[in-house]
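Morning F.,

Quick status update on the modeling queue. The single chain you submitted on Monday has been processed. Sequence for confirmation:
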Amino acid sequence: MEYVVRLLTLLDNIDRRLIYLVVAVSLSAPILFGVTLRPAEMSTAQAFYNEIELLQKKEKPFVVIAMDWGPGTMAENRPQSMLAVEHLMRKRIPFALISIYSLASPFLEELPRQVAERLEEEFPGESWEYGQDWVNWGYRPGGILMIQ
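Structure tokens below.
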């Protein structure tokens, strides 16, 4: 027990500037030396990818994407939604966007248009059109009752 007290006392007496220096060096070293880590493979992401791949083999597939997120969770959910929309567009699987969250309405319009524009730059001569490749069913009030 005495060793623990000594260790805690020693740590308590370390100059804060030294701690900040160690943090700064450890955070900047990977950037300066170009060290990168591969993203972790997630089984749920792979399962989602596989489902879209299977949909392409079905006759007249159609997907409904519920984008029930808004400005508060945009940093997490926008990239996920963009990847889902992009994958569907690349596979030419038509889809509809819907939300039971009122603040999501602008993203239902903006997100697929941005993905379509980016894909059209990547594949000159190809086009993705609203009403043919995707539709926006918009915000639907009523929450879970609307879904039921």
